[in-house]
Amino acid sequence: MDAGNVQHITDMMYALRNPAGVPTYPIVFMTLGVLTFALHIFFVQLMLGTAGVTLVGAFSNRPYWHRLSAAMLEVAKVSVSVAIVIGVAPLLFVQVIYDPQWYTSNVLSADWVIAFILILILAYWSMYFYYFQNAKQQDKNTAPKARWSMILSVILLLVVGYIMHNLTKQMLHPELWQSWYMQNGQMDYSGSKLHASNLWRFGFFISMAIPVAGAMMVTYRRFKMVREDADMDYLDFAAAVGKKWISVGSAIALVFYIGWMMTLPDTAGDFGTSFWGIAGGVALVAYALWAKVRLKDNSPLCSYMALPMAVVAGLVVAITREMLRYGILEGFFGYDFMDYKVVMDWYSTALFFITFAVLGGAVLSYYLTVAWKVGQTKGVYTPSATVDRMGTAAIWILLLWMVQFFAVGFWVWAQ
Amino acid sequence: MELISLYPTWFEPNLGSGWVIGIIATFHVLASHTSVGAAMLFAYLSYRSYKEDRPDYLDFVKRYGLFLLVFTYVAGSITGPGIWYSTTVGSPNGIGALIHSFVWKWATEWVFFVIEVVGVYMIVYLVGKVDKKTHMKISLIFGISSLATMVIIIGILSFMMLPGKEQWFAEGGYLNGFYGTNTFVQMGMRVAFMFTMTAVVGGIVVSTIKDAAFKKEMTRKLGWLGIISTLIGAALFQWYITSVPEQALLVMENRLPDYFEPSIMAVLAGTLGYFIVTMIQPRLLVQGFAGAMTIIILVAGLWPEETARESMRKPWVAGQYVYSNQVIGRDVPGMDIESQLPTLEKVGLLKAHPFTPEHLREVNAGNHIQAGEFITMTYCSNCHSPSRTGIRPLHRYFPEGMTQARMEDYIRGVIEPGTIAYMPKMPMTEKEVTALASYLLLNNEGGQEAITAAIDKEIAERKQKALVQESGDGQQQKAAIVSLNTATSQEAN
């Protein structure tokens, strides 16, 4: 690519920027985007991994596997919801600072973008169908019903993952956008094709589901072991499977990661051997080693740390992914999201952070404390006075938020 | 280079991108409004259960919650971002305008979404596992959070019709864009209709209650909720109409299909009738009846309402400054946004569009139809499909026997200056007028087949020309080499 072509592509990306600008410094959106992506992909991997455990259990003859399968299905079901809702945030932030790249990539594969919505709904319903078919099954020795629906669900989830992978990868190839818009000399307005994929990269993010599911099984043992009715043989079995999945899964993911770094486009330069290129792989190896050493004796504290440590490893990979994007777009094409026009809006910026930290913190601490305690209690759970006060405080904070929303609104309206 | 922020165009020939967005949005409105209304109903029932020691209320909450979890929460939580996805591919600058002004508002709404998702699982699965007081608190938090998601999004929806306050154009500022008369009236109207939907969809769950007395009680509760909210919603709709710009009313009068008003009235009357009948005779409330009412509301109530809201904004798609064809058609000094019309007037669409391929940047005899197609796709296809079906097909607007000259006159006199109230201005060069006229004419007479054949011919001729040029260049190159060799040997001699 000659310098003239590169300059044309850079000009095009700058021209596509939204003239309304952004309401705070772009680095803030990038940081939030990376953090929320790390959480989103963690829940995606948890959903896929636990759905995988559900399938293995569904086809196994061993009663312990049947129990584990049913337990992990509960996790998978909730993880789909959480993955979707957490995914809204990175989807929002990518549109703010990478709108030229994201919107172009989407329009050029528009049919698939629409299909994404429908396929995801079908995948989710398919999982629920399997759940309802087997929810009342008490006999752990019989094979579950409608296993096809769980297989279908996993396949459809992989398809939506593949669509998203392409959309993200297409963002990195502004030099090819024009050729995708014009196929064989003719304009193609259909948006019917996916244009760019790298199976190493896709395989890496998917294979990370194996160690994440492993971490979930280790945590599951720790969480359930405190109940009076805990079956320790079964829980030890779950943790043993989990530890195996962490080590084997990390090795598989590492192979894919190395493959990804070795097949980066020319526009990425020597990113694969740069600090961040190596850091992603190191994080993965470090996680596997940590699990090998610290989870050996089922230490109570470390068993709880298995999932947070997986999030940390995922965060390093999320930073690597962002640095790669920045490296290509800024390093090669000279497009820097940091120079996006800022039209500062302090009120809405402050309102978000206060809502996130104070309101979100108060409500979710109450919700999660109750959910946690219920999971460890046999019979009806009645909260302590402290937990009860947490609930009252959360309600008051919410009411206060509503009052300020309308008070500010009416004041502005009356001006 | 004078490029403007225009993305590639997605053309969906069967429905049109506008209807794809509309279908997803309508489905989302049903799911999300029902969910928010139900969340508030759950808070109320959970409170009554705690105060009156009525476990049957919590059983109902669990049933309705599970039903919603599987149907509306799954579909609602996916079609929500689904609206982003569909508008991204159908109207990237429209959604971009909203995102860039209201990103923090959406981010704030997201905090409430997370609370909602955790909350709905807790409400459903913790019935009988926590004491009633705790369940009441969980439900209250869930109800208020759900309402918060709704009031936030309505400010953004209102901005799509018009910024909250006129000052926004001069001064900018998120608050000026978000809050206004339209925001509050729309909020009231939507909250009312949200309870109507909750009452109708709730009927599906009530119909499965075995205990006749409890079924009667819940039917009456939902019936009253439905009747009162429908009447309030209908009254607020009248107020809402007065809060939209005059232009929107004009469009509404002229552009909306004849069935719009009767359809809305019939749905309102039918809904009231449904509530009255089921309250008098709860045994008539069976799953089929409640399910059919839900579909009627979706198809005959929500679909025309969402279509109307979409149509009334024309020619704008967001904030009265982004045209439905993605061009920025107005200065917004408060946000330092400049109209793109002067650039288009100066250089034309083909030179201003970042994605115009090299061979289409200049209109010539060899690319007339392709250039015309490119202009049509960019300027027209969001609202008018060049196919036989789809959204408001173009061929319906031109009579048989149009000539090139008449078509060009129409473009110069009507399309370019945007003299039709709900149409944007579409500046273009004289050559682009000719190309667009040629394309529209051919599309009118021969449809897609004729267009495809003409474009194939143009491409074949272009390739032929390129080959000839290449071989010509080759001959010249050979001649140059021979002459160079001759000169070199002469020099050597």
Keywords:
heterodimer; A: mainly alpha; two-stranded antiparallel sheet; 14 helices; B: 493 residues; Formate dehydrogenase/DMSO reductase fold; 2 domains; two-stranded antiparallel ribbon
Care to describe what's here?
The complex is a heterodimer of chains A (415) and B (493). Chain A is mainly α and 415 residues long. Chain A has two domains: 3-344, no CATH class; 346-415. Chain A has 14 helices and two strands, in the order αααααααββααααααα. In chain A, strands 1-2 form a two-stranded antiparallel sheet. In chain A, helix 2 crosses helix 12 and helix 9 packs antiparallel against helix 12 (300-332). The model of chain A has no long low-confidence stretch (mean pLDDT 95). With 493 residues, chain B is mainly alpha-helical. Chain B folds into two domains: 17-323, Formate dehydrogenase/DMSO reductase fold, CATH 1.20.1630; 341-492, no CATH class. Chain B is built from 16 helices and two strands. Chain B has helices at residues 17-52, 55-90, 92-125, 132-161, 167-171, 174-178, 181-206, 212-242, 246-255, 260-280, 287-312, 341-347, 349-352, 368-379, 404-415, 430-492, and strands at residues 316-318, 322-323. A two-stranded antiparallel ribbon of chain B has the order 1-2. The radius of gyration of chain B is 29 Å and the shape is elongated. Chain B starts with 16 loop residues before the first helix and ends with a helix. The interface between A and B is large, with 97 and 102 residues.
How many helical elements of chain B? 16
The coarse overall form of chain A would be globular
Mean pLDDT metric of chain A: 95
SSE string of chain A, helices as H and strands as E: HHHHHHHEEHHHHHHH
Q: Which bin fits the share of residues in helices of chain A?
A: over 70%
CATH topology of the largest domain in chain B: Formate dehydrogenase/DMSO reductase fold
Main sheet strand line-up of chain B: 1-2
Annotated CATH architecture of the largest domain in chain B: Up-down Bundle
CA radius of gyration of chain A is: 24 Å
Largest sheet geometry of chain A: 2 strands, antiparallel
